[in-house]
Amino acid sequence: MKRIIIVAGFVALLIVSVLATSAFAQTYELSQDILATPTYLHYDLVQSTDQTAPPIRLHGTYDSAHVATNPTTNRPKLYVQLAGRTFTLGANQELTTNGDSWTLDLSRWDNDHPTDPMNLVAGRTYDGSVTAVLISHDSLGAPAEQSTSANFTVTIPMNPNIVGNNNSPTSGTNNPANGNNLGVWINNLLPPNTGAGRFFRSTVGLFCLCLAGLIIISFLSVYLIIRRWKRCRGDRD
Amino acid sequence: MKKTNKPVWFCVGIITLVVVGLVGGAPAHAATSANSTLSQNITAGALSTDIRDGSNAIVASPTFTLSSVTASTGAQTSTGSFGSSSQRISVDNPGGANNGWTLALNATVPGTSKWTSGANNYSYNGTAAAGQLTVNPAAGTITPIIGSTTGITLGTSAAFSASTPITLAAAASTSDDIWNGYLTGIGLSQTIPAGQAIGTYTLPVTQTVTAQ
Description:
The structure holds 2 protein chains of 2 kinds.
Chain A: H1 2-21, E1 24-35, E2 39-45, E3 56-61, E4 69-70, E5 75-76, E6 78-82, E7 85-88, E8 95-98, E9 101-105, H2 109-112, E10 125-137, E11 143-155, E12 164-166, H3 182-189, H4 195-236
Chain B: H1 6-23, E1 48-52, E2 63-70, E3 76-82, E4 88-94, E5 101-107, E6 115-117, E7 120-122, E8 133-136, E9 141-146, E10 152-154, E11 158-159, E12 166-171, E13 178-184, E14 186-192, E15 199-211
Antiparallel strand pairs in B: 1-4, 3-14, 4-13, 5-12, 5-15, 6-7, 8-11, 8-14, 9-13, 10-12
C-alpha cells in the first residue's frame, strides 16, 4: 500500500512540475480600420430640352466597404447636399451608386418635380458636400458609426446644353460654336422664370420699359425746346 | 467430584441478558473524546495568462483595435491601447513559477505574420515606411489582485523587428510566489505605409507567459 502511495505522489509531483515550468500562451487579433472619405470628382452635362434647369450630373466616390446601412432605406448611409438641398441614397432617385461610385443626376429634376424646381442659376457657384456614415471599430472591437464628409463647390456652366465631361466646373462654359443662341445665353444669365426669379425678371422688364420711355420723352422734350427756340428767334427777326 | 450444571447456568445467563435488555439495563460506558488529524495538501498550480473582463471572467474572443485612419497618399500612424478594464491582460501564478516569470507579446507567426485585409497587407515588423508596430508597456499599469507589485516590472517601449518578441512585464524571483494580477493601458503605435488600400486589417498576436 505504501509503495502505491509513494508512486502516486511522484507522478503528481512530476505533473505539477511540468505544468509549472511550461509557457502558457493566448492568441487573439489586433485590428486596424483604414477608411476612405467620400469625394466629389467632377460633373458632366447631358442633352436636355429643358432650358430652365441645367442638365447636370455630379460624380464622386465613397467607401462602400465600410459604409453603414440606413435601416429606413436598407441602403448605404450616403448623402449628397447641393445648394442647401440634401439627397439621400434610397430616398431620392437622383442619387445612385455603383460600386464605390455615386452619381447625383439632376438632369430630369424639373421634369420630375415641376412644383419644386432646383433654381440653379448658370454661372453661379454652389456649395455642396458628400457624407458617408462608415462603420469602424472602437478600441474594444465593437462596431461604431463614424460620419465622414467632404465639401465641394460646383459652378453651373453658362451653356447647359453642352454634352461633355469635365473635371473643372469652371471650364467648358458658354460657346456659341456649340449651337448656343443669344436667347438661351441671356436666359441662362437670368434666374429661372419661377418664384422669386419670375419677380426679378418682371422687375427688370419694367425697369427697361421705363428707361426706354424716359429716353423717348427726353428726345421729344429736346426736340420741342429746339423747335420753340427757333420759332422765338424767327419772330424776333 | 462436584458435578457442574452448565446448561442451567447458560440458561440463567441468557435470561438475565434478555431481562436486562428489556428493562433497559444500565448504560454502557464508552470513551468521551477522541483525537484525529485532518490532512490538506496544497500543491502548486500552473502559471497562465489570458484576457479577463472586469468580473475576472475569461474573455472568449478578445479584440484590440487601433484608431481608424483615413486612406492617404502619405504615411501615417495609428495608435491604440492594449489592455483595458474590460479586457485585462491577466497573469495567474499559483506558485507555479517561484523564480519569477516573463510575459511577452509577439505575432502568432513571428517574423511572417502581416496586417491583412483580403489581398492587401502591410508589415508589423518592417521599417517605419513599410509598417512597424511599436509596443510601449511602460505606459501601462500593473494591478495586483493577489500579492504585491514587488519585483514585478513593466517592459520598455520597443518596436517589432524580425521575429523578436516584446516583453510586456517581468516578475523577478523576489516577487510573490503566489501572484495574480493584470496589466492595462499598454501603448500601441503602428505606422501605415503611404497609399495603403482601405480595409479592416487584422494581425494575429500571441501573448506568452514563461516561468524563469
